[in-house]
Specification:
By secondary structure, this protein is an alpha/beta fold. The protein has one domain: Rossmann fold, CATH 3.40.50.150. The protein is 27% helix and 32% strand. The termini are far apart.
């Protein structure tokens, strides 16, 4: 088991692992491996787009340590459980609007106290902004036509100055007709118009052929609260 350039992420061949915050417990049937008294959880890139991103040659840096993170589209908690491993002392707010998905997410948070699930719509950050405050990392994986706008609104409301984020852009949720390149250009323009710096652009093939990850940074200084 070898450490990677991302703090808390380990690798054995092409397989990624994180140190299990809750030893002996699986989240989604992932393999567990104990080496020198440390239990590692396999991080499946076919089940987690963030793992797929980290296996790309263009993979970005991840914050080594954060105090607060905001995760939009938590679903059943597959990816966010690995962020829970990476940042055990952080508070990770997880927004999910489906009651069906929220139930297992809530159960997961009872075993992982650094997860704070919020049953809400990511299109309405004003509903949870007061609870979340300013986050040092924003991650979004929602299947909506206006994905880039949702990310921009949440960044404006909840992302700290100079902080980073990752938008998992699901192209076919935006349109069935236009090319991937066209959808990505439009998303980049939407983010740029919100004064966000768009960096690395990473297709997630072969693990997820309909997704492109966009790495984003917020401006170093936030505008006054009345500005948009």
């Amino acid at each position: 088991m070898e450490p990677t350039r991302w703090a808390g992420v380990f690798r054995d061949g092409r397989d990624l692992f994180t140190v299990n915050l809750t030893p002996g417990l699986r989240v989604y049937g992932e393999p567990l491996r104990t080496i020198a008294g440390v239990e590692y959880r396999g991080w499946d890139p076919f089940r987690s787009k963030l793992a797929a991103l980290l296996l790309q040659p263009s993979a970005p840096e991840l914050p080594g340590k954060v105090t607060t993170a905001l995760y939009l589209g938590g679903a059943h908690g597959t990816t966010v459980s690995h962020l829970s491993d990476l940042w055990p002392s952080a508070t990770i707010f997880v927004v999910e609007k489906s009651p069906t998905s929220f139930a297992p997410l809530l159960a997961l948070s009872r075993r992982r106290p650094n997860l704070v699930p919020i049953l809400s719509d990511a299109q309405l950050p004003e509903r949870y902004r007061a609870d979340v405050g300013l986050s040092e990392f924003l991650y979004q994986d929602v299947a909506q036509r206006n994905q880039a706008q949702i990310f921009a609104e949440n960044a404006r409301a909840c992302l700290a100055p100079g902080a980073t984020g990752v938008l998992m852009l699901k192209v076919r949720s935006v349109t069935q007709r236009r090319s991937t390149a066209s959808v990505v250009r439009e998303a980049r323009a939407t983010l740029a118009s919100a004064n966000l710096e768009v960096g690395i652009e990473s297709p997630l093939a072969p693990f997820s052929r309909e997704h492109v990850a966009l790495t984003v940074r917020s401006p170093a200084h936030r505008p006054p609260s009345g500005d948009r």
